[in-house]
Amino acid sequence: MTPSSRLRRAVSATLATVTVATGLATVTTGSASAEQLHTPAQCTAALSAATAGQPIPAVASYRGPRSLITPDRQLRIAVSGDNPRPGALTQSIADWNRALAGRVTLRQVAPGEEADVTVLNLPGSVGDFVGRASASRRSIEIHLGALSDRDARMALNHETGHMLGLDDTGCVGTLMHGYSDQQSVVPTPLDVAAVVQGRY
Q1: At a CB cut-off of 8 Å and minimum separation 6, what does 60 contact?
Q2: pTM exceeds cut of 0.85
Q3: Exposed, middle or buried, 109 (CB in 10 Å: 0-12/13-18/19+)?
Q4: CB under 8 Å to 173, separation ≥6 — which residues?
Q5: Which residues, if any, are the signal sequence (predicted)?
Q6: Contact yes or no for 174/60 (Cβ under 8 A)
Q7: Which of 1, 44, 165, 187 is least surrounded by Cβ atoms within 10 Å, i.e. has the fewest?
Q8: 4-60 pLDDT, tens per residue?
């Protein structure tokens, strides 16, 4: 991977823009690179392998530059400030815990407790992005109040995927696809395999 492609991937993992059309929000990664990361054939092969419990080819291409999973295989999540969608965060943590099946455990911690990631609700309507994750700042910023429960859950699941070490992909139907209208709401076998393969 060239330095410029690594930079493009790092940027696409931290940026999100939004297009609002007919009342539906479509999240993009801020670049057209998601479709270029994986061909349909690569996605099909990876999803088939993951579904069969086999190693996925080129797993590093599905991973971002950094994971915040602790050495004891946890990801502790705190909320800073107002959370108008507490059910979405609870469901997101449950979605990832169900998918990871004990190999990594996510849990919400109270404000002031040690956390690996802090979720910050951004007030007001959606502007340049719905949600964005920054491993270096250990934060997820999201417009929770501007989203439906379903969209908040999907956005939290997607941004949490970045904190678990995943990058955006071009694989339609996965949680980590770069466009929300082509994403799963919950982690798919391919998303999970990219987190755990060779690690947990």
Answers
A1: none
A2: no
A3: middle
A4: 47, 182, 183, 184, 188
A5: 1-34
A6: no
A7: 1
A8: 333 333 333 333 333 223 233 434 333 334 446 899 999 999 999 999 999 999 999
Range of the domain at 41: 3-196
Nearest to 191 by CA among 91, 92, 77: 92
Which residue, among 108, 109, 156, has the nearest Cα to 133 in the 3D structure? 156
The predicted structure's pLDDT at residue 125: 77
Q: List, in sequence order, every beta strand (DSSP E) within 81-184.
A: 105-108, 117-121, 131-134, 139-142
Tell me what the mean pLDDT of segment 166-184 comes to: 92
Closest-CA residue to 13 (of 28, 1, 35, 25): 28
Would you state the structure tokens that stand for residue 28, as one six-digit string?
């993009």
- How many domains does the structure of the chain reveal? 1
Q: What is the CATH number of the domain that holds 129?
A: 3.40.390.10
